[in-house]
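### Sample
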Amino acid sequence: MEITSFIAGRYFRSKKKRNFITVLSIISIIGVAVSTAALVAVMSVFNGLEDLIRSLFASFDAELKIEAVQGKSFEVSPDWIVKIQSVEGVEIVTEVIEDNALLDYRGNQMVGRIKGVSENFLDQGRFSKGYFWGDTTLGTAERPGAIIGRGVGFLLSINLDEINSVVRVYYPKAPRSAASLDPNQLYASASVEPRAFFSVEQQFDNQYLIVPLDFAKGLLNYGNRRTALEVKVSDNASIGSVQESLKEVLGDQFSVKNADEQHATLIRTVKLEKFFVFLTLTFILAIASFNIFFSLSMLAIEKKKDIAILKSMGARDQMVRMIFLKQGGMIAFSGAIIGLILGFALVWAQDQFGLVSLGISSAVVDAYPVRLDYLDLVWIAVSVITITLFASWRPAWIASKVNPITEI
């Protein structure tokens, strides 16, 4: 053991003559411990919320989504679809036609989002999170059915048990050169049977009506055009590698987005909030570490004679500084270890028992989700080390300037 570590350890463990220094050291350890535990817990909550958002979107959105870079639709052909399906790692390709439309059910109306999908839509593992009740099919060509968001069903007062009840869907036709006196010529309409409700996330629940592709194609007059293609990747394939392969096959005219890129703004917002919360708690940790500064300053005053003796025996200023820097490090390290243990315990208890609830009735989770990320622990450790060095440097420098001639 180095002499500086030995002396710093003795100072750390020994009972100080001035009880105030001991109190400051204990307060320093408690402050660092509480701040570290708060950082671990809060960062874990943000990680859990980020995972929850991803899982909710994944139960409705595709793993990969192909869209046109310009315009809202593009032409497709059977051969082109087969070409995409032949890409290694692609398991399912779902054709999508999506647009806004007016929904009417027994006089109740709202503007919703109609999403026409091919028959393999539910084969992609949709609605794995949240609630889903009713028929898992989209009806037949003669009697098309719809899977409706719970919010849409609530606003339209839809009852799945009613016989022969239909949702009327209205879509405006393309404007013509000559105006027609018949208002029926201004829009297309068709009826679809409500078959099921889903509840995943409010953004989807309050907007979407999922219908068969042929129904949407006829109503919206899209023909061979599609607004998107949704791709499910094979279980043994990497989403990133399949995404790059599709970009090479499709070229610059199409974008291929993964789940995070489809909701990049929301994911970025969560990460930004997490960053600012981290800065705020780090600032609180810095304030708590001021006690380290005062504790070491008082210790330097108390140990002036010891320092003078060390210097008279040949100790240099650098050695004295290292003693006090290590003393500050021991205080911070003790607090950090206690804080990490406490933080781990809080996160484990929240994960196992759901101690803190969301306070709302949720279809997915009742308590705040949590997940430990070891990269967060690295940043917490870097913050503790940096703050400790700043808090300890000034007292260490003062201690190194003790004059042995005047103090002995």
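The longest strand covers residues 90-105. This sample (ABC transporter permease) is used throughout the tutorial notebook.
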